[in-house]
């Protein structure tokens, strides 16, 4: 017998509300229509299930380039804290609901013909296209920040391999070592950043009490610093933490990954472990589809309709100005499916 947990109940209620809200989309989608969702993160996978629940006869295809995205990973516990929440929609569940899953990447979108060109050489036709692009790192003009540096100073920001690398570096931290968390001025996920700082502080307190954490917070306001100080006190985290704000010189001007050195407006720092978080923008498919403005994000209305292309629907974190949280991704599905 399957045990009904509070988490499963919440997910069930979400799915039910999304389907209920979708009651009117039958007027817009014909049973013979082909709905294609690009991106199988929490927003994309949930949208596929919601569309299928609302329209059992609709042909729904979920396209994902990463074959591990829908797998059930056991993973190691140490790295789990640095990996984003995984979708509840496994490959077996999607297939059981009659959803076609294609493992491929989109190289071009022909909106006029209603056709996607795929990396494999195949095409995928659509009548309605939903994009859940997620986010990708934005290039920065920082001296020394090359591919080797990014490998040595993992962001572990949605990348499981980097999460394992960061966890391994923390496991090898000297007893009185120094960890630096770098947060950019253009921070895409403030709540995730706060969680990351707290995770690092807790780990140091539990495993290396003599070690210390420095947070380079280049965001323009002290909001994160204040939230961290409050949470650290309420959670009783006994760790040595120095939080340097933008006003105090948190901006990074150069890095030397081999020496573990970071140059900032506040001076030079030497660290044993550097968790270097870059700024992010909407994922590559959003640019390919022509849905990104100068900010790097997808401007949309409240229901996910692109302001640059009226027949495009954007889900999840790639939306400009959205709340980039798991709940935010789920709510974007409910709002989008309701008006499709």
TrEMBL record:
GO terms for molecular function: oxidoreductase activity. It holds the Pfam family FCSD_central. It comes from the Bacteria. Residues 35-151 form the FAD/NAD(P)-binding domain. Keywords: Oxidoreductase, Signal. Transmembrane segments: none annotated. Gene3D superfamilies: FAD/NAD(P)-binding domain. InterPro entries: FAD/NAD-bd_sf (IPR036188), FAD/NAD-binding_dom (IPR023753), FCSD_central (IPR049386), SQRD (IPR052541), TAT_signal (IPR006311). Residues 166-278 form the Sulfide dehydrogenase [flavocytochrome c] flavoprotein chain central domain. Its EC number is 1.8.2.-. Residues 1-20 form the signal peptide. It is an enzyme of class 1 (oxidoreductase). This is FAD-dependent pyridine nucleotide-disulfide oxidoreductase. The lineage of its organism: Bacteria, Pseudomonadati, Pseudomonadota, Alphaproteobacteria, Rhodobacterales.
């Amino acid at each position: 017998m399957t045990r009904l947990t509070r988490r499963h109940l919440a997910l069930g209620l979400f799915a039910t509300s999304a389907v209920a809200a979708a009651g009117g989309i039958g007027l817009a989608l014909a049973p013979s229509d082909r709905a294609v969702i690009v991106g199988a993160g929490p927003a994309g996978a949930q949208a596929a299930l919601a569309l299928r629940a609302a329209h059992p006869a609709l042909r729904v295809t979920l396209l994902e380039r990463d074959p591990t995205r829908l797998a059930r990973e056991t993973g190691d516990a140490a790295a789990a804290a640095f990996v984003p929440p995984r979708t509840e929609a496994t490959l077996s569940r999607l297939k059981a609901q009659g959803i076609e899953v294609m493992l491929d990447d989109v190289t071009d979108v022909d909106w006029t013909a209603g056709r996607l060109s795929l990396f494999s050489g195949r095409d995928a036709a659509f009548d309605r296209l939903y994009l859940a692009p997620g986010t990708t790192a934005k290039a920065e003009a920082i001296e020394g920040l090359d591919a080797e540096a990014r490998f040595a100073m993992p962001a572990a920001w949605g990348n499981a391999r980097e999460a394992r690398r960061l966890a391994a570096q923390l496991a090898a931290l000297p007893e009185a070592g120094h960890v630096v968390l770098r947060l950019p001025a253009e921070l895409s996920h403030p709540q995730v950043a706060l969680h990351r700082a707290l995770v690092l502080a807790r780990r140091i307190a539990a495993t290396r009490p003599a070690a210390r954490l420095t947070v380079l917070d280049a965001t323009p306001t002290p909001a994160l610093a204040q939230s961290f100080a409050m949470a650290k006190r309420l959670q009783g985290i006994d760790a040595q933490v120095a939080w340097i704000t933008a006003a105090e010189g948190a901006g990074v001007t150069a890095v030397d990954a081999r020496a573990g050195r970071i140059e900032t407006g506040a001076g030079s720092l030497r660290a044993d472990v550097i968790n270097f978080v870059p700024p992010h923008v909407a994922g590559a498919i959003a640019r390919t589809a022509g849905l990104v403005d100068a900010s790097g994000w997808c401007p949309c209305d409240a229901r996910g309709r692109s302001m640059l292309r009226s027949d495009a629907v954007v889900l999840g974190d790639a939306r400009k100005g959205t709340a980039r949280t798991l709940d935010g991704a789920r709510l974007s599905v409910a709002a989008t499916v309701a008006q499709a």
